[in-house]
Amino acid sequence: MKLQLPNPGLEDRILSHDELERLEVEEAGDRPKWDNKAQYMLTCVGFCVGLGNVWRFPYLCQSHGGGAFMIPFLILLVLEGIPLLHLEFAIGQRLRKGSVGVWRTINPYMLGVGIASLCVSFLVSLYYNTIIAWVLWYFFNSFQEPLPWSQCPINANRTGLVSECERSSPVDYFWYRETLNTSAAIEETGGLQWGMILCLISAWGVLYVCCIRGIETTGKAVYVTSTLPYVVLTIFLIRGLTLKGSVDGIKFLFTPDLNELANPTTWLDAGAQVFYSFSLAFGGLISFSSYNSVHNNCEQDAVIISIINAFTSIYAATVIYTIIGFRATERFDDCLSGNILTLLNTFDLPEGNITLDNYHEALQSLNTTNPDIISSLALKTCDLNSFLSEGVEGTGLAFIVFTEAITKMPLSPLWSVLFFIMLFCLGLSSMFGNIEGVLVPLQDLKVFPKSWSKEVISGVTCLVCCLFGLIFVQGSGNYWLALFDNFAGSIPLLIIAFSEMIGVVYVYGIDRFNEDLIFMIGHKPNIFWQATWRFISPLIMLAIFIFYFSTIVTKEIFYIAWDPESENFPTLEKKPYPSWIYVIIFFLAGIPSLSIPGTAVFRAIREFCCKKQPSAPVQEIDCVSYKVHAQVEELKSQKSQKSDQMFYT
Amino acid sequence: MLAGVLLLIFLPPLVAKDLCKDSQDGFKVRLSIKTALGEEAYDWNESEMFLFRSTLAYAMRKETKNDTYDITNILVCNDTPRVSFMFVVTSPGQPDQLIPKEQVEKAVRENKHRINNAFLLSDMTLEFLGIPPTLSAPIIYDTEPWLIVFGVVIGAVAVGIVALLMSTVSKKRRAKEKAAGLSEEDEGIVKENGTALSSFGGKEGAYNQAFSNDDRFTKL
Questions:
Q1: Which residues are the signal sequence here (chain B) (predicted)?
Q2: What is the predicted pLDDT for the residue at A649?
Q3: Is B192 domain-assigned?
Q4: Smallest Cα distance from B86 to chain A, Å
Q5: Are A480 and A186 spatial neighbours (Cβ–Cβ below 8 Å)?
Q6: Which residues pair with A37 in a beta bridge?
Q7: Superfamily classification of domain A17-611
């Protein structure tokens, strides 16, 4: 069933195989190139492996039946992740352009897909770099002993601890008050936090240094940013395994609960995690692979990178849960010790009479003799499992739970520095891909004047993004970030990925695509690729999209706020969004999504209007002087192109 | 007579016990020696109690600047295996007069550090119920440590940006000079002949003296 939509003029827009071969041999193109294959692989791995592998996957794994979650995750990885990845690599390598260029080449009416990728990359860059700014803030604050989030600060008249901190915990207080200075609701802006502004400027500054000349500088930076996280994870694994309670954490993470497989949410969450984890549909991967040599084996690359991504997710989950197991055990022991102390003090028993081991028996015997006193004591119930399953994902994991665990480890500043450097590297390497997905389309759309050099263009882009990012460093910034994360970085990506598959398979043509792959890697992609590209992956995308869309549209959307005046403080309070937020949500999710059909319609209207006023045909003057003049003009334009080349490569 | 003598002998301790037990001016003390010292915990015995009473007497002396306080002025009762007991302080001049609570509290507060150290304990493990420990002063930095690290990072970023921009500028300048040199050659080739000399590809080809543009000779 080879459905092919009509696509006139495709041959004129793309380079033929012979032209590609010539470009390859003569190295006459002015496109940047990777210095070596390792740079390309590290950059792609860095882009795919990001903060989500560390703080989203472990939570999903643990909450959806532990080891059993691997089954839907791996199945969907193979059916959804790898085909899409291979598709993006292959199309970028073949058409040798960034996302806007690729879609314009495939069909001018599909330019909207490229523009949508640009919009999504831009929106995600804004808030992703703010998360990196938060990581930097914690990193900067890790160079002191004791760590500032290990104890509550003393209040102004030195009579006790600050009340907000006393009611919650030092780590909560440091995160919500001293880092974010969060306001109680999204409507209250709370003013700009100057400490955060400095961190934001540092984050954009470091990013600018690494991206200043495109992959020339990025390629060097990834040697560090892509490899350091693995080193730190290994160090933490070794450290974690020597701590008490770590094995409980790992057991809790991987204990399979096969009943979860019957729950459709598990499969949909697995699909969404695979999709977002691969950073597909941002346009960055298409760009990166367009800098490759035309005969690079993109099929092998796609498989290798997928395996590395999956392995990193599982590895990071193991490491995170050793530390979480340690923290949960510490909390459990503290809880029990508190109860034991209360019992000893009330009954004036000698120390050592009740220990952690004989706590339950002792409690039983005391309960039989003095039940009324025991009930009046209000002893806390200590359950290890509840400590282990405290909702640990996202920023809560990194900045609250993990930082608390670190304060309980000896040599805390060292572990804190290592952990936040790892998060910084993970985030930065993902940002390289995001920024690539913003800069290259802007250059393709000729938004900037031609005379501006690469450095100036990347500088201006970083500056503009930094200024927009100031939204997220005000008091309510945390809520804005959650808003952007939920709406700009979710639905549009699914739509773009779906359009990409349809575009390549049915508009570009799966036959032509297969031939290209034969030319590039030497053999036709086998039945697995054919089936997944044509039917399986688009269907999975569609299913996930429908589920997400229906959840968002039907449910009441709300956000969780830190409100010291709420009744359930320190539990975060659910608040509904004000009505004007819905307009913003529409912009965030709607503009990228609607630009796909919108650009097509706009182009169609333009074509239609131009057809009504045909331009007068140029009359060629048939005389020698005109021909010589034309030849001189041509030579001049060739010369100026050559000199441009020298400046821009 | 014998009864009277017996009464006289046993009265002070009885009176003392009553003073201690029913008093409003007493404090309950609780020690958690095993929690604090673990393996190196010492046993609580009469000598340790003696030390406690003498440290409290010392605290009272320091507080009231009255050197007449003695160990007999510190009365202890309700000793439990938990190692917790009540104590009261009697005035040195009048043994049946108790020192008010506030004064005792003040004395303990001022000298808690010394009392803790005498027993190798801390504020958490040597508790005077009703006397909360004074909180230690917060550490005040001249420059916050995070600002220092931020300065280092921003400095490195600035140096990096400047270095990269300088290298680009110098590359451009070199390229411009090279292009200026090349363009003169190009111009010469086009002006003279559309196709002939371009196939030579630059400086290759035999140098023919007859065609050298040596101005000195041609002017003549």
A1: 1-16
A2: 38
A3: no
A4: 13
A5: yes
A6: none
A7: Amino acid/polyamine transporter I (1.20.1740.10)
CA distance A240 to A409: 10
d(CA A336, CA A322): 21
Nearest alpha carbon to residue A117 among A552, A425, A444, A429: A444
Whole-angstrom Cα distance, residue A277 to residue A274? 5
Q: Is the pLDDT of residue A615 over 70?
A: no
Distance CA A97, CA B31 (A): 75
| Cα gap B31→B95, rounded to integer Å | 27
> How far is B81 from chain A, CA to nearest CA, in Å?
5
Q: What percent of chain A has pLDDT over 70?
A: 93
Least confident piece of the model among A408-412, A463-467, A473-477, B90-94? B90-94
Q: Report whether pLDDT(B193) > 60.
A: no
Burial of A633 by CB count in 10 Å (0-12 exposed, 13-18 middle, 19+ buried)?
exposed
- In order, the DSSP letters of A484-529 are HHHHTSSHHHHHHHHHHHHIIIIIIIHHHHHHHHHHHHSS---HHH
- Measure the CA–CA gap between A311 and A57, rounded to whole angstroms: 12
pTM of the predicted model as reported, rounded to 2 decimal places: 0.84
Give the pairing of strands A573-576 and A558-561. antiparallel
Listed residue (A595, A209, A207, A227) closest to A433, CA to CA: A207
What is the C-alpha to C-alpha distance for residues A397 and A56, in angstroms, rounded to an integer? 9
Mean pLDDT rounded to a whole number for chain A: 87
User: Phi and psi of A608, rounded to 5°?
Assistant: -60, -45
Window from A315-319, A324-328, A624-628, B47-51 with minimum mean pLDDT: A624-628
**Using alpha carbons only, what angle is made at residue B156 by residues B153 and B160, rounded to the nearest 5 degrees?**
140
Name residue A134's amino acid: W
Q: Is A415 helix (H, G, I), strand (E, B) or coil?
A: helix
Q: Which residues of A341-353 are buried (b: 16+ CB within 10 A; e: fewer)?
A: eebbbebebebee
Residues 6+ away with beta carbon under 8 Å from A295: A24, A520, A521, A522
Q: Which of A193, A286, A201, A230 is nearest to A496 (CA)?
A: A286
A350 close to B (CB below 8 A):
yes
Q: Tell me the three state secondary structure of residue B77.
A: strand
Confidence of residue A24 (pLDDT cuts 50, 70, 90): confident
Q: State the pLDDT at residue B215.
A: 55
Instruction: Please tell me if residue B42 touches chain A, with a CB cutoff of 8 Å.
Output: no
Q: Do A154 and B138 touch (CB under 8 A)?
A: yes
Q: Is A226 within 8 Å of A429 (Cβ atoms)?
A: yes
Per-residue confidence (pLDDT) for residue A399, from 0 to 100:
92
Q: Are B103 and B88 in contact (CB under 8 A)?
A: no
A208 chain-B contacts, CB cut-off 8 A: 157, 161
If you compute the radius of gyration of chain A from its CA atoms, what whole number of angstroms results? Answer: 29
The amino acid at residue A457 is: I
Instruction: For chain A, say whether B178 makes contact (Cβ under 8 Å).
Output: yes
Q: Looking at the complex, does the CB of residue A141 fall below 8 Å from at least one CB of chain B?
A: yes
H-helix or E-strand containing A289?
helix A284-290
Residue at B35 is within a domain = yes
Tell me if B181 is assigned to some domain: no
- Domain holding B40, by residue range, is 14-129
B42 in a structural domain: yes
Domain count, chain B: 1
Contacts of A189 (CB under 8 A, 6+ apart): A183, A474, A475, A476
Task: Determine the residue of chain A that is closest to B84 in CA distance.
Answer: A348
Nearest Cα of chain B lies from the Cα of A565 at a distance, in angstroms, of 26
Dihedral sign computed on CA atoms, order A397, A399, A405, A411: positive
Predicted ipTM of the assembly = 0.83
In this predicted structure, the answer to whether residue A139 has a pLDDT above a threshold of 90 is: yes
